[in-house]
Fold:
Amino acid sequence: MAPRIPISAGNWKMNLDNEAADDLCHALLLPDDDAIHQVEGVQVVLAPGFLQIERVRDHFAGTGVGVAGQNMHARDSGAFTGEVSPAQLAEVASWVILGHSERRQYFCEDDGALNGKVTAALAHGLRPILCVGETTQERQADRTTAVLTRQVRQALDGIDLPHDFVIAYEPLWAIGSGQAATAEQAQAAAAVIRGLVRDAAGNDVADGCRILYGGSVKPDNAGEFAAQTDIDGALVGGAALDDQNFLAITRAVAGSDQGR
Ligand code: PEP
Structure:
């Protein structure tokens, strides 16, 4: 089995104007010998708002840093006011976050819709980061495995998955709350997810699938998450808006922060 290259992904959500986005990009790129793309052994992905995708892409041109949309529609074109199609997104980005809990919670995205989005993203050469995770109530009711099972099975049903597909485990109670999951909780969920991918797509895909943890990841906990057997990186919200924090998380995810 080829080693899984970990991912450090920053979701900027609906934050940063153009000037602030430029500043963050400059800070991540400078000083040149300590820039984010110089960190070895990790795939960095940045997900700015749609209007800033092209400028972020241009800042990082030639560095290997990937740029992602935070969402997209499943259809190629049509009368869907306010939406962005996979074809349009693929012209400017190579990754896309799908099924983020804020999309599920505030924009009524369900697993069936996500199945269509994952299918469309792959058809357009985009690399999806599919987000799954349970609410506080679901965890308290001991339904975490059942929820993950429904989300993964339905979102991936009938899809021919690439061997390096990416899924982010993001428990809702940990997102933006400052209360991260424990490494043990995250590992247990990631193992469930890898098992579901194994059932759905076989050993090659399951062994190659990158599973990220997201939810209040910070420089001081990123390394512990990344060290778990089934966790291959982090999806980062708030801490990705600060260059030093995101750089430190990226180093921790790459395992290259020792001695710093
Ligand atoms: C997220 O929104 O995907 C996220 C993980 O946010 P935060 O890191 O701020 O908890």
